[in-house]
Amino acid sequence: MTKTIFLAGALLAATPTLAREPAVPAGLRVDRVVMLMRHGVRPPTKAPPMPAGTAIERWPDWPVAPGYLTPHGAAAIRRVGGYDRTAWTALGLLARSGCPKVRIVADSDQRTIETARHYAAALVPGCTITTEHRPQDVADPIFSPIDERATTFDAEAARKAVLAAAGPGGIAAEERRLAPLIERLDTILCQRAKPDCGVAASGPSDLAPARPGKRPKLTGTLDRASTAAQILLLEYAEDKSMPQVGWGRATAGDIASLSEFHAVEFRLLARPSYVTRANLALIAPLIADAITKPDGAVITMLSGHDTNVASLGGLLDLHWQVPGLATDDPSPGGAIVFERLTDRSGKHYVRALYRSQTVDQIRDLTALTGKASPYVAVLPIAGCSARGINGLCSAEQFATALAVQR
Questions:
Q1: What is the pTM of this model?
Q2: Of the residues 109, 140, 254, 306, which is catalytic?
Q3: pLDDT tens, 126-157?
Q4: Is 196 one of the annotated active-site residues of the chain?
Q5: For the chain, where do the domains classified as CATH 3.40.50.1240 start and end?
């Protein structure tokens, strides 16, 4: 793993007009930020992206290898990095000149490494920063502790937690609830309903048998639907022409409604408490340390995946809805942001935000200035009410909320 090089000596670029940000509570100032971000827009992670028969036509081509950050995705990440620089300069967290103390840690996939690189270039332009990461494609237990056996994990206990999250009707009830969306998705994939085409052809939805050291996994219709819906979202976010998005049969409204499949998958598989604590066995302590370390970086950014973001949301019971997506669906380039707020006596507090471009802002590479602000929402942290503010944690409460066992 490479070491972070802290920055000195360059100048930050000129700061554009600040878009609207949630107000900082009276008597407090932001003096540190820690964030967990999903990587930017990528193609499907394999080619062909889904099993034969899922779609009636050939899937669109992409400009990069499966799973890699696209040039369009990189450009969108630079937009949001520039926005964060603007917002944090206005708050006084970043100076208008010089290079601040920044730490960036990325998973070892090309898309997470490149997301970190493009984000840093926009956040602190002119500064040299080295991202901490393992060699590309060498698995990193920070971002996948279950798969890498870096945490204690009982696959059967995780299975029970998922089934409890599904409720009395189980996984089958979720499929019944989503039947109209399944029909609409199969119409996009197959032109019309066909018994041997689409996600429904893969069989009833269920939870795969527990496997030692493996995260829970859906099977059947809902598993395929989540993957197919995410591919359509990525096609749209990549700014493919509408005749290419779902072969011309998908609208922007479809992209938003079908993202419910992705959100449901994460609600079932990534947000239950037992699973979140295992998924975050190494990320949660890293976040806690970044908030509390006396000589820590002003900004710490973790470049990871939607599963990481969903589990962090589940651990702290955080909820968001990015325009163009379903509730709690982690967006490309979207991030859970923790602000450390300090009062005049030096006492620390923490509040959580979700910051993301809207889906259309990613597609259009919208300049995030003036009225074209991204989605930024304060997310109340469950069980916290410091200074009489619902969801605001004292530093001690936040450390307790993040406590997980390895």
A1: 0.93
A2: 306
A3: 999 999 999 999 999 999 999 999 999 999 99
A4: no
A5: 29-148+277-402, 155-270
